[in-house]
Every structure is written in structure tokens, then in C-alpha cells.
Predict the 3D structure of the following.
Amino acid sequence: MIRAKKSLGQNFLIDNNLIERIVNIANIKGENILEIGPGTGNLTSAILKKEPNKLIVVEKDNRLAEDLKLKFNEKIVIINDDILELDEKKILDKELTVFGNLPYNISTEILCKWILNLEDQYWFKYLLLMFQKEVADRIIGEFNSKNYSRLSIISQWRLDVEKICDIKPTSFSPKPKIDSSLIFFKPKKNFFKFKDSKSLEKITRIFFMHKRKMIKKPYNQIFNGDINVAEKLKINLNLRPQNLDFETFYNITKEYENLRS
């Protein structure tokens, strides 16, 4: 039996009821599927039963990749690599439905990479991803709430997000010490356009660096103390980052780009 590697953040999904629920959330039959971190292949098996057109799995662990090859033979395409090192748009030249029991130590890095690298055309149809519950709550966070964060703003810029369910540690082996959540992501057709998506990453990083303090200091850092942008956007600089809604952050980013061009 293959043991999970703590260094890779591995927790294998073993709850058959949950697996069945996951594969019934989105249509799989005849679709092209990408699974991130298949582990021992429990979810992989359930996906195959739904008769996808093609199933590609990305598994960094050499031991697991070899085991998956023996278990599934030619039924799946195995990419034995680090998902963070892959250009997701080159995995397949067709739209993918993505399933992922993401390693918790790099889950936000994976999600932000995918979103910030997006072009006008999406490379995926849907994302069905598992996160540490605390992270999931920040992804779906609404402004003026304690969970509202830069992750909320980046995630909901290009994607509609919905929490499907919370997941207890008993659904995994080994059991993690925290609860998890399953999130469904659907691409937005209409979204705020920037010259460079990295601008939004920078603006939110600066503003949320001290999320409990007033925004006057990060604002002045970005705009060199120029009050005109704040007046134009009707921003009260005595507010805290969580008090600015999504649209305000997008407009701040746009003004930042305009000043730099």
C-alpha cells in the first residue's frame, strides 16, 4: 500500500459517497476531463465510469504515477509533473472540465496562477476543486465580511463561485486535521478588463497586507499621495480593505494602470 507523502500535502480521497456526488455535479460523458492529484485513483475510477471522451491526470509523485499506469493502462493519459510547472493551456487544445483534490500547501497558488494567466478564451469549462475550508471561505467571501480577502477578489473577478459542501477529515486517508470544502467554479462571460491581470494581484496584495488598518497608507503607496483618484472613485480613505467592494478594487486597478501607461 502506498503511503501519503506529507511533503506533497497528500490526503487521498476514500469516501465513496462523496466521490459519487462529485462526479454527478457536472456532465462528464463525452467530455474532456483533467484531474489534478489523482493519488490512488479512487476519483479517477468513478470518472471513467461516466464515459468521458478523454481523461488526463496530473500526478507529481513518481510512485503514484507508476501505480496509476498499472491500474488504468491506456484508459487515462498520465502527466507525471508538477501542476505549477505546466502550461495549463497546452495540456489539450480542447476545453477541459477540471477535478482536483489539490494539495493544501499549494492550492491557492494553483488557483491564482490559473486565473491570472487566463486570456479572453477559457481553457476550461468548469473547475471542481477541493480546498481547506478556511481557504474556501475566503474564495467565496463577500465584501464587508471577515472572509473577504484578495483571494475573494481575484477568484470572483473571472469566475462564478459556489460552495457545494463541506467535507470532514474522515473522507480522506490520512485524515487531515482540518475540514475541507468543495467549490464549483464557472467562467464569467462578462468581466472587468485589465491591460495586465498581474495589476489586480499587485493592488490587492498591497491593500490586504494590513487588512485591519485603514486604506490610506496603501492608497498613498500606490498613487503617491494623489487624492484625485480617491475623489473620482468616491473612496473614503478611513475605511479598511474589507469595506471596499469588488468593483471598487477593479476600478482602483484600472486607475493604477492608466497612470502607468
